[in-house]
Structures are given as structure tokens and as C-alpha cells.
Automatic annotation (TrEMBL):
UniProt-annotated binding residues for a divalent metal cation: H45, D47, H79, D188
Protein name: Ribulose-phosphate 3-epimerase
Organism: Thermanaerovibrio velox DSM 12556
Source organism, top-level taxon: Bacteria
Stored Pfam families: Ribul_P_3_epim (PF00834)
EC number(s) recorded for this UniProt protein: 5.1.3.1
UniProt pathway annotation: Carbohydrate degradation
Listed GO CC annotations: cytoplasm
Keywords: Carbohydrate metabolism, Cobalt, Isomerase, Manganese, Metal-binding, Zinc
Binding site for substrate: S21, H79, G155, F156, G157, G158, D188, G189, G190, G210, S211
Cofactor binding remark: Binds 1 divalent metal cation per subunit.
Amino acid sequence: MAGPVSVGAVRGMGRALLAPSLLSADLMNVKGSVEALGGAWDWLHVDVMDGHFVPNITFGPGFVRSLRRGFPDAFLDVHLMADAPEDFVEDFASAGADLMCVHVEASRHLHRLLSSIREAGVMVGLAVNPATPVEWTFPVLHMVDLVLVMSVNPGFGGQKFIPETMNKTLELFRRREAEKLEFLIEMDGGIGEDNCRELVRNGCDVLVAGSAVLGAKDPGEAASRIMSMLGR
Ligand code: DX5
Ligand code: ZN
């Protein structure tokens, strides 16, 4: 909890990691928001938005650098919702990201982009929007550590889960088995106590939750309830 985790400890085991999204943190007191979780978290999910790929603007490398200073042992899961992601790899890597997740829709040269993330010494993630066929990830699955299935259209917290996206995690799960690969399956958007168990049954290894955790009345209680539902 709240530190480097053995990702193999959850993969395909019917358990999952919880990655609270800092989009729902108190931006005047991010450290306090994380501390209010009382250690009931695994990764910190950082939503980077550029105002082009998505209609919102959030955090840059400076924020990740500060997080790294404030939480030296935390696993920083950086979700890059930006056009031209290749321009940001170096900056987020040197800021202290542990995993950088780029969108399949944002790059014309995926092999080059994913290789550059690997070369920067950061774990490699690939995200797919709800309306993007999951098959778009198939040619490069051997190059990634994680596939992020978006269950809302990215841009904002607090949106409703899109149920059609659930098939994608099962498809990825089966493909991973068939090809003997090891990537993790992460889901992001509209996730909370009402659906987290079902998502784990559908193959998810990492669940991102923003409003259901950091937006809750008692974030510590909400996080530990979800953690226990994730078999943690
Ligand atoms: C959406 C972001 C999510 C968001 C999730 O663009 O990628 O990480 O913070 O927020 P909730 O859990 O409130 O849907
Ligand atoms: Zn996200």
C-alpha cells in the first residue's frame, strides 16, 4: 500500500489495485487529500490534460515533480491525455513518473512512441477511448506493461460509467492468456463501490477512482471499503 507494489501479485488473480485519481483531490491541499486516504491506496493516478486531446487542462511535469518529492515511495501512474504525446515523454519521465500511459488515438507512430517511453526508463501504458476498438492495441501488446480501458470519455471526473466498455477488458484478458503476455489491465472512469467487484471479475487488475474516493464525504472510509472489495 502506498508504495511500490508487486504488480504480479494482482494480475489475473481476481484482485485489483486501487489508483485514486488526483483530479478529485483538493488542489489547495493535495498532500492532505492523499493523507486523508489513510494509506488505503496503491497507486496515485495523475490525469494530464492538454486542452486539445480533451476539453480540459490540468497538470504538467512540475506537478509530478512535486508529487514525487511529497511521496517519494508512491507509484505515480501518469495518464497523458494530450496530442503529440512524444513531446512530453522526457519531461514526465524526469519528473518522476513510474508509468506513462499514452492514448492510442493520439499517435500515428505507436511503436516509436512506446519505445521512447521504455527508453526513458518508465513503465509503458496504452489507453483506449470508449469508442475506440480494443483491437487497435493488439499490434503492440507485446510492448506494453499496461492497457488502460477508458470507461468514460476522458476530460472530466464524475461521469457515468459506459457499460459497453466492459467487453474490452475481457477481450484483453483472453488475448493476454492466448499470447502469454503479462500486461496489466486498468480501467478508468465512473468506477466506485457499485461496480468495482464486477470489473475485477471482468479481468481488471487496476481500478482508477476519482470522485468515488477523493470526492467522498469520508475519503479514507470510501477508499478502504473499495480496497476490501478489491480483495486487498
Ligand atoms: C477522466 C480521467 C479519470 C477521472 C476519473 O478523464 O481520466 O481518471 O479522474 O474520475 P471518476 O472516477 O470521478 O470518473
Ligand atoms: Zn485517468
